[in-house]
Design a protein that fits this description.
- The chain has helices at 19-26, 53-59, 71-74, 81-92, 97-110, 116-119, 129-141, 159-176, 187-193, 211-216, 221-228, 268-272, 291-307; strands at 8-12, 42-43, 46-47, 64-67, 147-151, 179-184, 196-201, 204-210, 278-280, 283-285.
- It is of the alpha/beta class.
- A hairpin with a 2-residue loop joins strand 2 (42-43) and strand 3.
- The radius of gyration is 21 Å and the shape is globular.
- Helix 5 packs across helix 7 (129-141).
- It contains 13 helices and 10 strands.
- It has 2 domains: 18-159 and 169-176, P-loop containing nucleotide triphosphate hydrolases (Rossmann fold, 3-Layer(aba) Sandwich), CATH 3.40.50; 211-307, no CATH class.
- The strands form 2 sheets. Strands 4-5-6-1-7-8-10-9 form an 8-stranded mixed sheet, sandwiched between helices. A two-stranded antiparallel sheet has the order 2-3.
- Bound molecules: iron/sulfur cluster.
- Iron/sulfur cluster (SF4) binds next to loops.
Length: 311
C-alpha cells in the first residue's frame, strides 16, 4: 500500500493480525536481530528496510512520527511534560532551549491543552488519559513530520474523548498536510477519518480500496463480517453478526486462504491455494469467490444492514 501527503490510510483488522507490526517495520522498530523483513518500505524513494540505524534515528520522530495506543507508557513519568516536548524538538532541530520551550507551548495550545502555560510544567500523572494523548499528538507533530502513524490512538479512551482526539488528529493532519496511517480495529474510526482502507487478516492484506468503495461494495467475506459486527445508531440492529472461530496462529497459519476455517463461503480451492491480491488501485481483494457472488453478497449485506434486521 502507499499513502500520499495529506491523505489518510486506515489499516483495520482484529488484534494480532499484524497491523502494529507492519507499522513498527515502517519505523524500523522491529529488532533486526530477531525479525526478518522482506520487500521494500519506500519513504521518498529511500528503502527504510536497508537504511542504516543512524539514518533511521534521524527519520524517526522527525520525518516519520508515531502515536501509540497508551500514552502513559510512551511518556516518561518522572519528567515534566514540557521537558519531554522540548527534548523531542531539540533532538532534531538546531534551536535554543528557549525556542524549544516556546515551540512546546505552541504545540500544547494547538492540540487544545487548556492553560498550557501553566500545565507545561506538570507531570504526566497530573493529566487525564485524553489530555495525555493530546500531549503525545503534540510531541508527534512538534517536528512537522511528513508521515504520522497513529496506532490505535483512541482505544484506551472513552467515546467522547475518542471523538475529540480523532478531531484533533484530523484537523492537524489537514493543516500540516501530513500523510497519516491510522491503525485501528474499529471500522467506525476509519469511516470517519480515512480516504483509503486496507483490511488485514492474519498478517495479509485481504482488501484495499477507497473508503466509500469499501463501505458500499465490500468484496471480501472477512470485510463483510467486520461490517456486520459494527454497532449502528441509525437503525435498530437486532443482533450483531459474529465471525465464528478464532484468528489463526501466525506461526502455523492454515493452508490456502488463511480465512478458510472461519469463512462460510469456503470452497475446496480455498483450502489449497492462497488467493492473490487482485484488482487495481480502485479496489483490490484476495478471495477466490467470483465477481458476481461478491457483488451479490455485498448488495445483500448492505440491504440487511440498512434494514437493521438480524444478519
Ligand atoms: Fe472465503 Fe475462500 Fe474467499 Fe478465503 S478465498 S475468503 S475461504 S471464499
Amino acid at each position: 500500500f502507499s499513502v500520499e501527503p495529506g491523505q489518510v490510510l486506515g489499516i483495520v483488522g482484529e488484534s494480532g493480525c499484524g497491523k502494529s507490526v507492519t507499522c513498527l517495520t515502517v519505523m524500523g522498530l522491529n529488532d533486526r536481530k530477531v525479525a526478518t523483513s522482506t520487500g521494500q518500505v519506500l519513504f521518498r524513494g529511500e528503502d527504510l528496510l536497508t537504511t542504516d540505524a543512524k539514518r533511521l534515528r534521524e527519520i524517526r520522530g522527525n520525518e516519520i512520527a508515531m502515536i501509540f495506543q497508551d500514552p502513559m507508557t510512551s511518556l516518561n513519568p518522572v519528567h515534566k511534560i514540557g521537558k519531554q516536548l522540548e527534548e523531542a524538538a531539540l533532538l532534531h532541530n538546531d534551536m535554543t532551549k528557549k525556542e524549544a520551550r516556546a515551540r512546546s507551548l505552541e504545540m500544547l495550545k494547538v492540540v487544545g491543552i487548556p492553560h498550557a502555560t501553566r500545565r507545561v510544567d506538570d507531570y504526566p500523572h497530573q493529566f487525564s488519559g485524553g489530555m495525555r494523548q493530546r500531549v503525545m499528538i503534540a510531541m508527534a507533530l512538534i517536528n512537522s513530520p511528513d508521515l504520522l502513524i497513529a496506532d490505535e490512538p483512541t482505544t484506551a479512551l472513552d467515546v467522547t474523548t475518542q471523538a475529540q482526539i480523532l478531531g484533533v488528529i484530523k484537523k492537524l493532519q489537514d493543516e500540516f498536510g501530513t500523510a497519516l496511517i491510522m491503525i485501528t480495529h474499529d471500522l467506525g474510526v476509519v469511516a470517519e477519518t480515512a480516504d483509503e482502507i486496507v483490511v488485514m487478516y492474519s498478517a495479509k492484506v485481504v482488501e484495499h480500496a477507497p473508503v466509500q468503495e469499501i463501505f458500499s461494495r465490500p468484496r471480501h467475506p472477512y470485510t463483510w463480517g467486520l461490517m456486520g459486527s459494527l454497532p449502528r445508531l441509525d437503525v435498530n440492529v437486532e443482533r450483531l453478526v459474529q465471525i465464528p472461530g478464532q484468528p489463526p496462529s501466525l506461526l502455523n497459519p492454515p493452508k490456502g486462504c488463511r480465512f478458510n476455517p472461519r469463512c462460510e463461503y469456503t470452497m475446496s480451492v480455498c483450502r489449497e491455494a492462497e488467493p492473490p491480491l487482485v484488482g487495481d488501485a480502485s479496489h483490490e481483494d484476495a478471495c477466490h469467490l467470483d465477481s458476481a457472488t461478491k457483488e451479490r453478497e455485498a448488495a445483500s449485506l448492505n440491504e440487511v444492514l440498512a434494514s437493521g434486521a438480524a444478519v
